[in-house]
Specification:
The protein is an alpha/beta fold. It is 41% helix and 23% strand. It is built from eight helices and 14 strands. The strands form four sheets. The chain has a five-stranded parallel sheet, with helices on both faces. A four-stranded mixed sheet has the order 10-9-8-14, covered by helices on one side. α4 links the parallel β6 and β7. α6 packs across α7.
């Protein structure tokens, strides 16, 4: 199942939607404002957005998500029903547009269909330099970490050698202290573990390099 963020300032409706989705087996994060919503981004696979919010517009949130976090599926759930609003939402980045009150069975079907598209295993967002787990948790990468996952995602099942990583970072292999690579990987594993409580399946192949225990899709 998935981690879904519900952005809705009407508390009763937000809790009703969250209760329904949790009953479908999903993990739900709730926010009543944009200020509360953005810190949830590293954990969400899908976002359900209202338009009228106390500190901004769900339309703007959809556009920003679509631009900066393309791995997150977006459903607009709003009382605004005009065709102009619907077109603005869809062209602005939303994958689906639902008008309140909606039938929860319809919402569940749309969620399932959208997750089949966005929730497919490990992903590496190249432009945003972000690694996304199958459960939706994500972490930003520095330039060298991103170079490692660029190589891992283009060589599924293969070992990325230390030399390949060093040269991908534009460094001179002959004058590079390889201990810096192990420090890089150690810090990345620790950040991942502290962020989501799970181990990153990034394996050290001693005297060779690194491998990843799953296929990574570039997005």
């Amino acid at each position: 199942m998935a981690c879904i963020a519900v952005l809705e300032d009407e508390i009763a409706l937000r809790e009703e939607v969250a209760y329904f989705l949790e009953g479908c087996g999903h993990s739900v994060l709730q926010a009543g404002s944009l200020a509360d919503f953005w810190p949830l981004l590293p954990r969400m696979e899908l976002a359900i957005l209202d338009i009228l919010l106390p500190d901004g517009s769900g339309m703007d949130a959809a556009a920003r998500l679509h631009q900066e976090s393309p791995w997150v599926g977006i459903i607009m759930l709003t009382a605004r029903s005009s065709s102009e609003d619907q077109l603005r939402g869809l062209y602005g980045g939303a994958d689906h547009y639902l008008v309140k009150p909606c039938r929860f069975r319809e919402l569940a079907a749309i969620v399932d269909a959208l997750l089949r598209r966005v929730g497919a295993g490990w992903r590496f967002a190249v432009r945003q330099r972000r690694l996304i787990a199958p459960n939706g948790f994500s972490i930003s990468l520095n330039i060298r970490e991103a170079a490692l996952f660029e190589l891992l995602s283009t060589r599924p099942g293969a070992i990325v050698t230390q030399r390949a990583l060093v040269e991908a970072c534009g460094e001179d292999w002959l004058h590079f202290d390889e201990r810096r690579i192990y420090t890089l990987v150690s810090r990345l594993r620790r950040r991942w573990r502290e962020g989501c409580g799970l181990e990153l399946p990034l394996k050290t192949e001693y005297a060779e390099g690194f491998s990843f225990g799953a296929t990574i899709q570039q997005i």
